[in-house]
């Protein structure tokens, strides 16, 4: 549980610790230890946490804030988010004392060229995610050598076997919550008295963009309300490597 990442003097890609070395060292580490190791591996100015400020986001942001509240946080403001999500972002920034939250929007040129009528979410949701999430994130991550996200293995599908550290092309990708359980997430909420996403009380267990998010019924998978009725289960930012 006390594994730490090797210290490196440079943050160039070639000088970063190997993915296998880090994943092996951090396999059984706590989320806080993994975030601390990420800081040691690449440095605060080269590390970002990507958050949707969704229904479970407060837990990872709380752990990060306890390690270093000045780690940059990237928030993808797609133009289709619930007003409740935008309000929740502001609530968590104030509650947790986050010092560097960057709200990133899609390129206006891409929107006017590919989605002038705002109907792309219905006709081609993969393309909609690409211009509203994948491309903006790739742009936002350019200055960074490593990034942190909140995926968990218990979420299933493509997430069932995620490692703690993985290769993301030009940078390291840290999954500090890979090993956590639903019960452990709930314990963080309760122990830290974290505010809940406003839509949780209305039956939303996973919240993304408004047109592609629906409530889930009891017994359904928590992400069943995302892209309901389609084979799609991911927006794309976790299924392709960033350059």
UniProtKB/TrEMBL annotation:
| Similarity field | Belongs to the PAPS reductase family. CysH subfamily.
Taxonomically, what lineage is the organism?
Bacteria, Pseudomonadati, Pseudomonadota, Alphaproteobacteria, Hyphomicrobiales
Q: How is the cofactor bound?
A: Binds 1 [4Fe-4S] cluster per subunit.
Name the top EC class: oxidoreductase
User: Per its record, what are the GO molecular function terms?
Assistant: phosphoadenylyl-sulfate reductase (thioredoxin) activity
Pathway assignment reads:
Sulfur metabolism; hydrogen sulfide biosynthesis; sulfite from sulfate
- Identify the InterPro entries for this entry: PAPS/APS_Rdtase, PAPS_reduct_dom, Rossmann-like_a/b/a_fold
Q: Which residues form the Phosphoadenosine phosphosulphate reductase domain?
A: 47-214
What is the protein name stated in its UniProt record?
Adenosine 5'-phosphosulfate reductase
Q: Which cofactor does it need?
A: [4Fe-4S] cluster
Instruction: Please give the catalytic activity noted in the UniProt record.
Output: [thioredoxin]-disulfide + sulfite + AMP + 2 H(+) = adenosine 5'-phosphosulfate + [thioredoxin]-dithiol
Q: Which residues form the active site?
A: 235 (nucleophile)
**Which cell locations does it reside in?**
Cytoplasm
KW Metal-binding (keyword) present:
yes
Q: Which residues bind [4Fe-4S] cluster?
A: 128-129, 209, 212
